[in-house]
Amino acid sequence: MFKLFLLSFLFLISLEASTKSSELLKRAQSYMKSNSTSDTFRAYDDYKTLYLRSMVDNDSSLKFEALKGIVKSGERLSIDVSKYSQELKTLSQKSSYNKPEPKEMKKSKHIEDVHVDPLHRLKSVEWREDTLLLEFNKELTSSQIEHFTLHDTIKGRYRYVFDIKTAMLTDSQNIKSNDIDRIKIAQFDPQTLRLVIDHNAKIEVAHSIDSKTLEVKLKTKTSKVVPALESVVPIKRDRGKVIVIDPGHGGKDPGAVGYRKYREKIVVFDVAKELEKILESRGYKVYMTRTADKFVKLSDRTKFANKKGANIFVSIHANAIDGKHANKVHGVECYFLSPSRSERAKSVAAQENSADLSDMNIYGKDSYLNFLNHHNTVASNKLAIDLQRGMLGALAKRYSGVKDGGVREGPFWVLVGAQMPSVLVEVGFITHPTEARRLVDKNYLKTMALGLADGIERYFANN
Ligand SMILES: [Zn+2]
């Protein structure tokens, strides 16, 4: 738990997150119209934020736009964006959002020549039993609709795509469904509204037009199965990897003290031990920054990881919140270190750090930004996503009400100085009665450690 700092930081995050991706994209695009270097930098920054969001939301079309922007602005700024342009190339080749391969798609008709009325727009979306109803403000014709299906054989996913030649939807939205993994509707380009139905199995999809309404009937063959994360990506194990696990706090520093006086330092040590056991059994080299209940300075933790030549650094913590919110706030979160843009974030980091003056002398108040390099920030973000998914996937299969607190970024001192991708995991709120009871339960911790281990393997398999 990072005390006051965390609370203020969460507030900060919520402010940042309030800028919608579509608005951010528009802003970046308008910066790009300017010729000034500082505006191009702003655009570059926005595109990077969008890129990270696209990974968190698993949104390929946003990723595509973000990568295009990063490459374009980066090149203008003479920043090395070769990694991004490589990814963009790969994405364009296999992208199901951009140009589906002809053999994969069944086109109903060619609609390139359809004239788009800019005032023709979507009014509402609703369910009538298993049929999705998209109501427009004007009559719809079949020539306005293109439908194709994509099957990703590697990931075993099916995508049913409807491109509707209408305009004026300002923001993308996800449509809730009990049976289908993901349904999303978004303005794909100025002339096309795109509806994507994404599922881990085949669906019977039938569509028809009734005057102003497009009716899409969706029938799944089976009831919803929680997709096993392990099966999504075939795992290639690289047993040469070195992992440093950092159980937070210890010794004179108990960390957060929560429900029934449970102590963070004990909980996180138990998770770390479980994780160590699993990773070792899978053939990895694992080191712990502390192997007993003793105090270790923050800066010594990453120094240790650097010395061991770790491929990744995972710091484990438990969260806490005071008083009247204790019964309400719970959930698991993953943080990665990033050079938070605002002055305020920097001052929050300095405040957090004041608890350990010796660390401050080593790094200096502002110089922590120098430790960050772009490559590690992106890699850490990816690692955080894999860890978060791993934990949630494993826990949600066995426990109810597990809350996804999300992947967040921030200037965490314990991660500063790490020369490898590093993530801080908050395994839950030790102040929340249910979550705290689970956090001292061996089976729960084992499940969580298993999820973290799977997340780590996914990360290594993909990077
Ligand atoms: Zn902590």
Automatic annotation (TrEMBL):
<dbReference type="InterPro" id="IPR050695">
    <property type="entry name" value="N-acetylmuramoyl_amidase_3"/>
</dbReference>
<dbReference type="InterPro" id="IPR002508">
    <property type="entry name" value="MurNAc-LAA_cat"/>
</dbReference>
<dbReference type="GO" id="GO:0030288">
    <property type="term" value="C:outer membrane-bounded periplasmic space"/>
</dbReference>
<feature type="domain" description="MurNAc-LAA">
    <location>
        <begin position="302"/>
        <end position="457"/>
    </location>
</feature>
<keyword id="KW-0378">Hydrolase</keyword>
<dbReference type="Pfam" id="PF01520">
    <property type="entry name" value="Amidase_3"/>
</dbReference>
<feature type="signal peptide">
    <location>
        <begin position="1"/>
        <end position="19"/>
    </location>
</feature>
<protein>
    <recommendedName>
        <fullName>N-acetylmuramoyl-L-alanine amidase</fullName>
        <ecNumber>3.5.1.28</ecNumber>
    </recommendedName>
</protein>
<dbReference type="GO" id="GO:0009253">
    <property type="term" value="P:peptidoglycan catabolic process"/>
</dbReference>
<dbReference type="GO" id="GO:0008745">
    <property type="term" value="F:N-acetylmuramoyl-L-alanine amidase activity"/>
</dbReference>
<keyword id="KW-0732">Signal</keyword>
